[in-house]
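quick q for whoever's on today - can somebody do inverse folding on this one?? i tried earlier but teh output was garbage lol. tokens:
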């Protein structure tokens, strides 16, 4: 199995556990004299079984990520950490640019006699930096995705 397939299975199993959690909660109690729409005990058993399989799959994915070499990007785990930090940096830059541009609301003047709000940060430069970081994220993500579909999942 390829790493990319395992990642898809992990996402599906995670969705399934969340759906089962909601169904369990909806059927955990019922009114006297009625029967629940579904058997909460069976749903709970199904959720438990799915979580056990998910734990094994996540372990295999993590072992694979920690051994796959991506060349200049280092190990796959290093590339994933770098992508996370680039996403965080992009978020900080865009939030700072939005705040400096007054997109947070409440920064406009109601009357001419009120003081103007000035930007403490260079909005255009922040947006340009955010664009560069967004390009870096896309390029790194493409390399990670390619690696996911080339690497075999470890046991």
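ok took a stab at it. sequence:
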């Amino acid at each position: 199995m390829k790493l990319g397939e395992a990642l898809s299975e992990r996402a599906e199993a995670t969705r399934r556990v969340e759906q089962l959690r909601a169904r369990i909660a909806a059927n955990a109690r019922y009114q006297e004299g009625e029967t629940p729409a579904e058997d909460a005990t069976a749903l709970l058993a199904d959720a438990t079984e799915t979580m056990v399989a998910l734990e094994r799959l996540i372990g295999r994915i993590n072992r694979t990520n920690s051994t796959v070499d991506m060349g200049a990007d280092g190990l796959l785990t290093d590339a994933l950490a770098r992508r996370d930090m680039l996403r965080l940096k992009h978020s900080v830059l865009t939030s700072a640019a939005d705040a400096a541009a007054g997109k947070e609301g409440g920064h406009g003047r109601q009357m001419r006699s009120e003081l103007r709000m000035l930007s403490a940060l260079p909005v255009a430069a922040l947006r340009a930096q955010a664009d560069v970081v967004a390009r870096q994220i896309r390029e790194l993500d493409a390399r990670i995705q390619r690696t996911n579909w080339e690497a075999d999942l470890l046991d």
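fwiw Residues 70-155 form one domain. also DSSP finds four helices and no strands in the chain. so keep that in mind when u check it
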